[in-house]
Design brief:
A hairpin with a 3-residue loop joins strand 1 and strand 2. The chain has 3 domains: about 5-65, lambda repressor-like DNA-binding domains (434 Repressor (Amino-terminal Domain), Orthogonal Bundle), CATH 1.10.260.40; about 80-195, no CATH class; about 200-330, Serine Threonine Protein Phosphatase 5, Tetratricopeptide repeat (Alpha Horseshoe), CATH 1.25.40. The chain contains 21 helices and 2 strands. Strands 1-2 form a two-stranded antiparallel sheet. It has about 400 residues and is an all-alpha fold. The chain has helices at about 5-15, 20-30, 35-40, 45-55, 80, 85-90, 110-125, 130-150, 150-175, 180-195, 200-215, 220-235, 240-260, 265-280, 295-300, 300-310, 315-320, 330-350, 350-370, 375-385, 395-400, and strands at about 285-290, 290-295. GO terms for molecular function: DNA binding. This is Transcriptional regulator, XRE family. It comes from Thermobispora bispora (strain ATCC 19993 / DSM 43833 / CBS 139.67 / JCM 10125 / KCTC 9307 / NBRC 14880 / R51).
Length: about 400
Amino acid sequence: MTGYDDPGAQLRALRQQLGWSQEELANRAGLSTGVIKKIEGGGTARMETLRALARALGVHTVWFVRPGSPAPTVDNGNDAVLADMRAAILPPVGLDGRPLGTADHDDVHLPRLADAATEANHIYHADRYDDLARLLPGLIQSAHYHVSALDGPDHQRARRVRSALLGLAGRYLIQVRAHDLAMTALQRAAEDAAAIGDTPLAAAAVTCQAWAMLRQGRFAEVENLCARTADTVEPRMSKATPDELAAWGWLLMRASSAAIRNNRSEEASEYLALAETAATRLGREHDLAGQYRFGPVTVALLHPENAMIEGRPDLALQALTRIPKGAGRTNPSSWNRASLERARALVRVGDLDKATEVLTRLRRQHGQWLRYQQAARDVTTELVQARTRPLTPAQRDLVDFLNLTI
């Protein structure tokens, strides 16, 4: 359907085509009539609400998402803050094709650069984003110079290090919501990995690229990208290496995340079941190319997320009680996102005090990570709006920490 500029107008048109009243649509979607009236009147809605409407109407979720021009915004200074990162990812080059402005000039020392890249990865997983923002531009510039200055096997190794650094930059930029620059970094990371024939490293870059695209609402593209890439890299189970299993499994998880958001529950379950096959084969968490952990714990944490998107907080909480023990540790960010889903589910079932405890623990242990999460702001806003009594001190602290206007 075309000719409508907002989801509310599209929703009203399709409802009327079907001959349904607002009350009937609300009943079929499991929503209140007030929600339908607000959306049709131009109000916004959460993704899970749009998904419930899409399911009731027999369309895909992205049917409600139409491209348009962004609203004018006041410059928040992010362009200047990211200037060094942008210059490193997209460096100017001279007549000889070599990047200008490299950090280490003629000082070529690949082992030292590789060690620094490993340390930068540790800094990322420790949520030390300010430190990472200061370190990464110089490391990426150095990697550019190493790639251009070295030949033979050393050139291959330099490209592997640069790919890892660009992948790390992409993950950091997604966290701080600089998605377009993240996509550029990740595409270049994938190009480096493909050029040296490192399929797991390339798959890790594609997986991270899919994460950025999910945040941009590009669900059909993500599913197609990850499903096709997973078909390409699918290993033979009898001979698969841990990296191959992890790469394949993560691609399937991203495909599942995209499908469930686009009202394709059956396909989402199929992708997740295949990812579980890879995780079971591994038996415990495995570090993929120094970027992602994959295994039984990581896959199990996707179940509550998918359940919440389907509007089933009860199933999400049940899934969180079935996380495997003794199978190693997943990435901190994966665990933190599952904790946010737990808080959201607790709000939905009415346990606001427990939800506050979960959010407060996240703030105390991973505050640097939490302050960049839109999901944290959404859950906290929902929690506050569900209160019938004055906010507790802990809840007021969360509101202040996340800079919310309630």
